[in-house]
Amino acid sequence: IYIVRMLPFTIKRCSMSKVVIVGAGQAGSEAATHLRGQGFDGEITLIGAENVLPYQRPPLSKKYVTGDMRKERLYLKPESFYHENQIKLRLGLTVKKINRSKKRIETDSVTYDYDQLILTTGSLPNQFPGNFEENLSGIYYIRNLDDADKLKEIFEPGKTALILGGGYIGLEGAAVARLKDLNVIVVEKSKRILNRVACEQTSNYFRKLHQDNNVKIVEGYGVDRFTHQNGKINGVFIEDGSFYAVDIVIAGIGISPCTKLAEDAGLEIANGIKTNKKGQTSDPCIWAAGDCSAFPFGDEYIRLESVQNAIDQSQVIAKNILGANLEYKPIPWFWSDQYDVKLQIAGLNNGYNQIVSRINKETVSMSNWYYKDDTFLAVDAINDSRAYMVGKRFLEAGKSPNKLKLPNPEIDLKGL
């Protein structure tokens, strides 16, 4: 979740016989699908850089790497769907330029004219600093299908994996590696794992969970340098002076929005492609959705890196292209699966100054409720789907649960 200062936008109208969508991920596929579902009978072209059908990404670092999900189940729609709905799917193409004056996009081999353009370019993993990995092999990322396929090949029992980054992606990767019987070390440069995204109580829970599964966790120190043999990383020195022999390095150090195409075209950028509440960029004929977009939320601009945002925002944009004039007002939600634990998050915890924890020892569940003074902001529900659902309903109603009653597990949440 990223935040920048909010600036005003107004919505304008463009003609709409040709819609081009750049980015064939969750948001792009949803935009195309919803346009057809809403009755749009014009031309839809969906362009993707990967030479593979649009697919879901969350399972890549979980069930797909472990072999519990086949590749075909990743696909959002079968290929026949795009043919039947007259969605022109153009895969393996990288868009090089947006020509706004001619309303045209350019690739290396072909150009496409548009009346309305939707940018769903997504995000890319942050790269580990080049001075550490230059000319060295052995560092992997978990962002696309190709990354996951590589990890499936090298995840062998007995190997040692170093996970760089103790956020949700890093911890999910650590859990999968342990399930595949690898030795695992997690290195988090911040003072604690999940420092950017969760309260200390949630961090403590997941630290213990991973330690109970024999994961070594190093907090408060980064990587000093790698050692290597024949150009392949085989060890790492941590800033505290410790050394670990490793076979695999997985970098889970965050992602950044893919904005270069939009920036080169002169669109407004602020850690994301800036849109108004309708999803429209500073060009009235160009829209943006998903990880790449920064949109108004309260009195700020935020980016949401979630499946929910990719789907819901794309649906609103599809309707607005057809004249609905809707505002996107999400109740953000997220989830993370690690071992047999499911974390569900409702809301955004930005600006919290108080945590109320609810622990049920009988069901081995826990929920941490975020408040700013007396205003409820978000909840981390750990193996507690009821806490998640009740918290989400409070957010939807714009109300706050009683902080004095929340900690008592004998009080039914629904009664609140």
Gist of the model:
With 416 residues, the chain is α/β, with parallel strands linked by helices. Mean pLDDT is 92; it is low at 1-13.
Model description:
There is one protein chain. The chain is α/β, with parallel strands linked by helices and 416 residues long. The chain is built from 10 helices and 27 strands. A hairpin with a 4-residue loop joins strand 15 and strand 16. Helix 1 (26-37) packs parallel to helix 9 (307-321).
Features of this protein?
416 residues; alpha/beta; five-stranded parallel beta sheet; 10 helices; 32% strand; disordered N terminus
* Rg, alpha carbons: 22 Å
The number of distinct β-strands equals 27
Largest sheet: 5 strands, parallel
Name the beta content range: 25-35%
Shape category: globular
| Poorly predicted spans | 1-13
CA-CA gap between termini: 29 Å
Tally of helical runs? 10
Q: Structural class of the secondary elements?
A: alpha/beta
Strand order of the largest sheet: 4-3-2-8-20
Mean pLDDT over all positions? 92
> Helical amount among residues, as a percent range?
10-25%
Chain-wise SSE layout:
Elements: E1 2-5, E2 18-22, H1 26-37, E3 43-48, H2 63-66, H3 79-84, E4 87-91, E5 95-99, E6 104-107, E7 111-113, E8 116-119, E9 123-125, H4 130-133, E10 139-141, H5 145-154, E11 160-164, H6 168-179, E12 183-188, H7 200-212, E13 215-219, E14 223-229, E15 232-238, E16 243-245, E17 248-251, E18 255-257, H8 260-264, E19 273-274, E20 286-288, E21 293-297, E22 300-303, H9 307-321, E23 333-338, E24 341-347, E25 354-360, E26 365-372, E27 375-382, H10 385-397
Parallel strand pairs: 2-3, 2-8, 3-4, 8-20, 10-17, 11-12, 11-17, 12-13, 19-21
Antiparallel strand pairs: 1-22, 5-6, 6-7, 9-18, 14-15, 15-16, 21-22, 23-24, 24-27, 25-26, 26-27
